[in-house]
Design brief:
single chain, alpha/beta, PTS-regulatory domain, PRD, Rossmann fold, 3 domains, two-stranded antiparallel sheet, 17 helices, globular, transferase, PRD, transcription, BglG family transcriptional regulator, repeat
């Protein structure tokens, strides 16, 4: 499906550009900032969904059933914003969206993840807030760490779970590319989140998948309190990440955990970083983006840090050298293990355990490096 979306474009260049230009207007009307990756995917799938609407409208009985399903949508601001978008589309191309098509666009706006939502704490989501407060309280009772800035965490979860509930209601699938890494590297945190999330499942009459739990784990992981050690000869580090608020915050926490003696205070989006780059004073930029360019040294890492990422960062922050870009640590380790263990599943499991031990040792060394 992804390869097909990459290769095909059902919209003309002019119309594709029109929809891209509409994104900030839609966000302004909504009072919400839609996640960058969700916008990209929405622009790719929108023509296919509109075509499916055209097919449905040919069958009157099915059309009426879907209209009933969408009745609640028409009460929300997303529907009004979708109507405005349809009006601008008609003014530009003289193409009209049907009521069903407007409703479908509204469902997409409701369902996609948001980085900002000024309506997150509106009265109609009071029950959602109560369930999340109980979820946070139960989670904290099950761990030995403290959650900091609970109000901010609650607000972020409100934004995330509003979209989550609409996805569940209308059967919109959302794949989390970080689920495997979260389960592997933060297994205990994932399990506690899974247990705590039973509160949400019971309150909202839904079933949360592992992908859903991983997203919740990412949100919570970014608010777990850590204790920094004394700082000496620290480097100033900028983080640049366009993966959304939750992933960005978790990336910040990971970097602070592994390198507590460096000055790592915030995460920029690419747009934010470019706006301050000319006046910035920084030793290195660590980014999850493949295409970021800068006058500063750049280290590219995964959102969930791998052993190779940590070693790469350690080499530069402590010794001012870049690691050899040939074979990665993980690839070398995999080759070594496979020469002794033939069974691929056993070899993979053993490699994960070895890398977990190495990660733990790196944490210790990072804390002891400047003592």
């Amino acid at each position: 499906m992804k390869e097909r979306l990459d290769d095909e474009c059902l919209l003309s260049v002019e119309m594709n550009q029109f929809f891209k230009e509409q994104v900030p207007l839609v966000e302004q009307d909504l009072g919400k900032k839609i996640n960058h990756h969700e916008i990209t995917f929405m622009l790719q799938v929108l023509p296919y969904l509109l075509l499916s609407c055209h097919n449905v409208e040919q069958y009157q009985e099915r059309h009426q059933d879907i209209e009933k399903e969408f009745s609640l949508i028409r009460k929300r601001i997303e529907y009004q914003v979708s109507k405005k978008l349809g009006e601008r589309l008609f003014q530009k191309f003289e193409i009209s969206l049907s009521g069903l098509e407007v409703s479908l666009v509204a469902v997409l706006l409701l369902s996609y993840r948001k980085d900002l939502d000024i309506h997150a704490e509106s009265d109609d989501f009071r029950q959602l807030k109560l369930a999340l407060e109980e979820f946070i309280w139960y989670f904290e009772s099950q761990i030995r760490m403290e959650i900091e800035n609970k109000d901010d965490l609650l607000r972020n979860l409100m934004i995330h779970c509003k979209a989550l509930l609409f996805r569940k209601t209308y059967g919109i699938f959302s794949k989390n590319p970080l689920t495997k890494q979260i389960r592997s590297k933060y297994g205990e945190l994932f399990l506690v989140t899974r247990k705590s999330a039973e509160i949400l499942e019971g309150a909202w009459f839904i079933r949360l998948t592992d992908d859903d739990i991983a997203y919740l784990t990412i949100h919570i992981g970014g608010f777990l309190k850590y204790t920094p050690s004394s700082q000496k000869n620290m480097k100033k580090v900028y983080l640049v990440c366009d993966e959304g608020v939750a992933v960005s915050r978790l990336l910040l926490k990971q970097c602070k955990l592994y390198f507590p003696n460096e000055q790592i205070d915030t995460v920029f989006t690419t747009e934010q970083f470019k706006s301050v780059e000319d006046i910035a004073q920084v030793d290195v930029v660590i980014t999850t983006n493949d295409d970021l360019d800068s006058r500063f040294p750049i280290l590219r890492v995964n959102p969930i840090l791998e052993a190779e990422d940590i070693l790469k960062m350690l080499d530069y922050l402590k010794h001012n050298i870049f690691r050899n870009k040939s074979k990665s640590f993980s690839e070398n380790l995999s080759s070594l293990i496979s020469s002794y263990i033939v069974d691929s599943k056993l070899a993979s499991k053993f490699q994960e355990e070895v890398q977990t031990l190495i990660n733990q040792e790196i944490v210790v060394q990072a804390f002891l490096e400047d003592i």
